[in-house]
Amino acid sequence: MLSGLNHLTLAVTDLDRSVVFYGELLQLRLEAKWDRGAYLSLPGLWLCLSFDPLRRPEPLADYTHYAFSIAAEDFPVLVARLNAAQVSSWRDNRSEGDSFYFLDPDGHKLEVHVGDLASRLKACRQAPYAGMAFFTE
């Protein structure tokens, strides 16, 4: 039986640049680094950065992205830091809770979001998406 998400691995073209982005700008904890990779963490998240010269830095056109949780009081501070670093955004927020959608240096689509599954389901119960069905209380 699955018990959770084990880790995320992101292909990067410049390992040092990505370690700075995730470690310093987003404040993940650097756990280990080697010639072709690095491990960083947040509570409940293990992130692997893996050097891959075949990675194309253009973001894909689809909606696939990785969202990080953030407390409401920390949200404006992080968004200001990302804007000051001239990090590119890729979408405006259209959901409940504050969200900021942005790109990492290799074009991976990221989001910081205030809220969780419970708050999303509560909002959806009040205004469901087209064809939405609920399977839990």
TrEMBL record:
One Pfam assignment: Glyoxalase
Keywords: Metal-binding, Transferase
Gene3D superfamilies linked: 2,3-Dihydroxybiphenyl 1,2-Dioxygenase, domain 1
Domain of life of the organism encoding this protein: Bacteria
Family matches, as SUPFAM superfamilies: Glyoxalase/Bleomycin resistance protein/Dihydroxybiphenyl dioxygenase
GO molecular function, one term: transferase activity
Positions in coiled-coil regions: none
Ranges of residues in domain VOC: 4-115
PROSITE patterns the UniProt entry points to: VOC
The protein's name: Fosfomycin resistance glutathione transferase
